[in-house]
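Figure S7 source data.
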Amino acid sequence: PPPHLKSRCQPYPGSQIKRFPVPDDKVDWSMVWPQYLPVQHTDPNVASRPTWADPDLGSKAFSPRFNRVDGPVDRTSFLGDYELLQNRPLNPRGRTGLAGRGLLGRWGPNHAADPIVTRWKVDATGQKVSHPASRRPVLQFISIKRKDCGEWAVPGGMVDPGETVTLTLQREFSEEALNSLALPAAERAQTHQRITQLFTAPGLQVYRGYVDDPRNTDNAWMETVAVNFHDETGNSVSELPLQAGDDAGQVTWVDLDSAFPLYASHSHFLETVAKERGAHW
Ligand code: RP5
Ligand code: MG
Ligand code: MG
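Tokens for the predicted magnesium ion complex:
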């Protein structure tokens, strides 16, 4: 894979902090680089010990089992065993210019799930719309605009301790694209029913692995499972009452197209969806 790019972005998100600049040829840990002096940074919010974050390494009563399923927390990586340097997990994709956890809660892998809900784009008469350049039918997916950075993204989120990925996919979609957390109980139950139907279909796993996320550090990084739930007729997904919630500021259907910029490595997931379904990209 190409060296991670967004994981070296300047400044570090949510701060004015400049990462130690890492050129492409120095990303790999195997390149000896004695001058490398990454900036140490753990966001104050993470350091304040919210329930979703690990304690600091070296804290009493915190002895994480790296490369293992550690109680309810999965500390294994999809990339295989990661190394530890002075007790700290090392980002398997290389240097990022920043040490510590930054905005991420877990030391090592931070597991997420990304639900990609799609339908075909149709015109007023219900005919599939083909792209003039590729002549392929256009797919659309439900996209959210992230509040943290303003970028469009898949409505994904972190796997809670002990939670199955299947449940995370459904829960994050409901929270971010349907604002389930703010719905009155009756509506929430109705939405839940609709959504369960959509998410009980097996779905097509389009990615599983490292995410080139701007929050990544030398010692903490994002990994995800991205799954496509496609509605061939579009009838049931088109009726979903889209409403942005939680860490989403907006929600809307977006055409799959390589030119549309997306958060982290989300474009890569959508490219696979488009290719697998013979759609325009
Ligand atoms: C990305 O961050 C993942 O692909 C997923 O979409 C997202 C999870 O983080 P939050 O949305 O919870 O911030 O790396
Ligand atoms: Mg979320
Ligand atoms: Mg999210």
